[in-house]
Design brief:
- By secondary structure, the chain is an all-alpha fold.
- Helix content is 86%, strand content 0%.
- It has helices at residues 5-38, 40-55, 58-96, 100-109, 113-151, 158-168, 174-201.
- The longest helix is centred in the middle third of the chain and has 39 residues, at 58-96.
- It starts with a helix and ends with a helix.
């Protein structure tokens, strides 16, 4: 498998779709999370929605998005749905852990609300956000592969290859095992990088 260039094409497509979904979730989480961190009422309104997103079975959303977005885009939509609550709550955790004395000082000494947010609040919240980012990317990759296996109709990918080999010859598990092993190794590498990032930023929390 490692000597076949198609394997690397599959890896590339899986990573690309993961990054696409994760990027959308990242942008939405930063925008909504910063607003919610500054305006507590938004946190209260969004809390039930975040609970629903986190508690609902991921596989159920795969089938739902398969109908709504077609099989090609369903895995990306599932990654967005999975990563967004984690990233959003990481941003919120950063804002909620700003010491009260700093909040009080900003109300008195800041030359403007925007200046205080950009120069003080966001840098303080950043370690919490980076820990959430590191925690959610490997999970997003696992979800992408799972969604590819379930839908089986996306562009070439690791999960799509597993699905295809099951259809071609369900009795021959050798290629399925090989691709699954490659996927596990990639996820372990991503997990290791995420662990190192978390360990670094946890020092500043």
């Amino acid at each position: 498998m490692l000597g076949n260039k198609n394997t690397y094409v599959r890896i590339g497509w899986t990573l690309l779709r993961t990054l696409e979904g994760f990027g959308i979730a990242l942008g939405a989480a930063l925008l909504i999370g910063i607003l919610a961190g500054l305006i507590k009422k938004i946190q209260i309104v969004l809390r039930p929605l975040m609970i629903v997103f986190k508690s609902a079975p991921t596989a159920a959303f795969v089938f739902l998005f398969f109908v709504l977005f077609t099989g090609k885009n369903a895995p990306i939509a599932v990654v967005v749905l999975l990563a967004f609550p984690i990233l959003y709550e990481a941003v919120i955790a950063g804002f909620n852990n700003i010491p009260q004395e700093i909040e009080d000082s900003l109300r008195v000494d800041s030359n403007g609300r925007t200046l205080g947010v950009l120069r003080v609040k966001i840098p303080i919240a950043m370690p919490y956000f980076m820990v959430g980012l590191a925690s959610s990317f490997a999970l997003s990759l696992k979800t992408e592969i799972m969604a590819e296996i379930i839908t089986g109709s996306t562009n070439p990918g690791l999960g799509t290859a597993i699905y295809a080999y099951r259809i071609i010859d369900a009795s021959d598990l050798t290629p399925i095992f090989a691709i699954a092993l490659i996927a596990i190794i990639i996820i372990l590498i991503v997990d290791l990088l995420g662990f190192l990032v978390k360990k670094y930023f946890q020092r500043y929390m």
